[in-house]
Amino acid sequence: MRFPFVMLIVFLLTACAPAAPVATTPATTAELPPATASPTPAATAPVPTAVAASDAQIEASIQETLDIYAQAWEDNDLALLEQTIDPQSGAFRRLVKGRFESFQESALSGTYQFSFTVDAITPLDYDFVRATVNSGGQVLGWTFRAVDKRWLLSEPSATQVGKRVKQETEHFVFQTYPWADAVNSEIMELMEQARDVVVERLGRSPEKQAQVTILPSFTVDPSQGASVLAFYNRGSRPSAPDQITIYAPDTYAFGGYDPVDGWQAFLRQRLVHEYTHLVQDRSFTPIVRVPLWMTEGLAEYVSDSPRAGEVRLAIDRDAVIPLIDPTTTDPLRVQDLQHMGVLERDTSLAYGLSYSLVAYIVETHGGLEGFWQLAEAYDEQQKLPAALEQAFDTSYEEFDTGWRAWLRKTYR
Questions:
Q1: Section 199-221 average pLDDT
Q2: Is pLDDT of 189 > 50?
Q3: Residue 228's pLDDT is what?
Q4: Which H, E and C letters describe 333-355, residue by residue?
Q5: Residue 207, pLDDT above cutoff 90
Q6: For the chain, which domains are there?
């Protein structure tokens, strides 16, 4: 069965793994109005008039690029994909290629059909153009630049987005850039709403403010993984602030959204995910003391992001990632959920399965209190079988069998 590209966007955009307590950025799918109301960033310089092509000519060139882009995804042709990306866009090329390669290596490869249509264009500063693109009913806001008379995927540089601006509220210290001024305030409000959801569902809130950075371009902070939309990075020292980083709508990293729901609902869900990491880390068992499937599964559970379609497809294709892989002993090579941070493929599927594990625990082992009981036991034991015996008086084999049966029943 072939699925439209609309489903792929959600599967590719995973929240990041929580970072270890170091200062580096971690290695981890907001609503925009409909296409006709796509936001235009505040001007940081006069829009150059050097581009003499008409809107119709620009749209036609962008459509040609998108047709090639779709064919590259359809045929798993990296060389063809590279023809659609601005060769001078630096780290942005890595983002586009990384997202492409991640999908092509996944269990989902060959299950989608790809189609992209330009609905409208908006001129931006520095000779960029934003194209509102429809793909299977989903909206993407992608930026293009003319290169040798062809309009190719591109994004502004760190200099072009403007100087960083700091704004403080009761719960957050926001860092924004002028390029995304049309949406910065709304994203800040969504962050506050996400905090309210997490505090209500988990019953606790951290005392310190968190720092939130809204990125208007991948090149501003190009150290992230290709599938990142938003991520949490715990403070490296007790006095250092926790950090949440968000890509703004109308960036390639943001991906697509349903125009009926808009980008706000989509982003709000991801922000709930990231703030769950922060609350777990600061108010419960620290995230560095439990396996990644527990932290990501909890964040997906609190944000109501089951990725059901992807999990169901994996069940149908007998491609469920094992919780513990008994065939591989090297922790750097093992491909299971217990070592989720070193998975070579199917990262997004791993998030869906992690959700299912938390949902299974909540449903069959005492609700969220049962989950915290297992987290505390794991913190003490640092071995999953021992933690399951301590928390639930059950063996790993019994737990795994019960989870797999629950999967087949729940996702049928």
A1: 94
A2: yes
A3: 78
A4: CCCCHHHHHHCCCCHHHHHHHHH
A5: no
A6: 18-31+161-275 (no CATH), 34-153 (3.10.450), 290-410 (no CATH)
Q: What DSSP character marks residue 220?
A: G
Backbone angles phi, psi at 185, to 5 degrees: -60, -40
Asked whether the beta carbons of 340 and 350 are under 8 A apart, the reply is yes
Q: Is 359 left (phi over 0), alpha (psi -120 to 50) or beta?
A: alpha
The answer to whether the beta carbons of residues 170 and 212 sit under 8 Å apart is: no
- What band does 113 get if pLDDT is binned at 50, 70 and 90? confident
pLDDT band for 45, please (50, 70, 90 cuts): very low
- Tokens at 263, concatenated: 């980008």
> Can you give the pLDDT at residue 17?
39
Coil/strand/helix, residue 252 = coil
Label residue 52 by pLDDT band (50, 70, 90): low
Pairing of strands 230-233, 256-257: unpaired
List 168's β-bridge partners, or say none.
173
pLDDT grade, residue 2 (50/70/90)? very low
CA-only gyration radius of the chain, Å: 22
Which string of DSSP letters, residue by residue, matches 50-119?
-----HHHHHHHHHHHHHHHHHHHHHT-HHHHHTTB-TT-THHHHHHHHHHHHHHTSTTTTSEE---EEE
Q: Cβ contacts of residue 3 below 8 Å, gap of 6+?
A: 111, 112, 113, 309
